[in-house]
Design goal:
Layout: E1 7-10, H1 16-27, E2 31-36, H2 39-51, E3 58-61, H3 67-80, E4 86-89, H4 111-133, E5 137-142, H5 163-184, E6 190-196, H6 204-208, H7 217-229, E7 240-242, E8 245-247, H8 256-270
Parallel strand pairs: 1-2, 1-4, 2-3, 4-5, 5-6, 6-7
Antiparallel strand pairs: 7-8
Helix pairs in contact: 1-7, 3-4, 4-5, 4-8, 5-8
Amino acid sequence: MRMAGKTVLITGSTDGVGRYVAAQLAAAGANVLLHGRDKARAETLSEEIKRAGGPEPAFYQADLSSLADTRKLADAVLADHGRIDVFVSNAGIGSQNDGPGRQTSADGYELRFAVNYLAGFLLAHRLLPLLKASAPSRIVNVASLGQHPIDFDDVMITRGYNGSRAYAQSKLAQIMFTIDLAEQLRGSGVTVNSLHPATYMNTTMVRAGGVTPISTVEQGGAAILRLVTGEDVAGKSGLFFNGMQEAKANPQAYDAAARQRLRTLSLELTGLPAT
């Protein structure tokens, strides 16, 4: 996909790998829609993009731990733009952000499930009309090799909470959603894939977990950019990649009944109409 003139929304694009991907796509001529919580970071990135000769990006400030804020983000993007060629659902929080204890979102949901999964689920559904109208278009969900099966009797992990499990569950939910949405969008011209960009990239999220980085954001960014722009993946959908290589996710991702349960729950939690 040639990016000149294309419109790309990247959540979590004022820091880490999202920031790198945004800068690279802007340098290729894309109209990048930045998202984050920190306006100052967005302004710094915007100036860097303009100095490098890229188009001035738009910035949308939103807290994805709030479904109301997430809806406002979708509404603003839909109001401001007539097309979206790519949606990269990249925003997320790690297993230890703000401490190891169980935390909840503004809506009372387990925080990692809310930010890493539900917000992207809601945004993708709200943005689908523009993505379909802009086809061929792409959705890229930034997930992880860290995956834990969902216990549908305790999705919000109210018993025996563990941050690593919560993070891994939210990432598997993203992959299950990827497969599910790809099936729904078959024939629409919209592809949707997920990936583990790289292991322990040098990002704020990794450092907050007390982990020594072993990969660079450039390595992870290259894997994301391949799913955004690569001709070799243009017709592929519903897949999970480990870096540049197609890979298998946790077996629950391929359980149609489990994906149906997750879809039903997610539609209920986000207030979206049943599909």
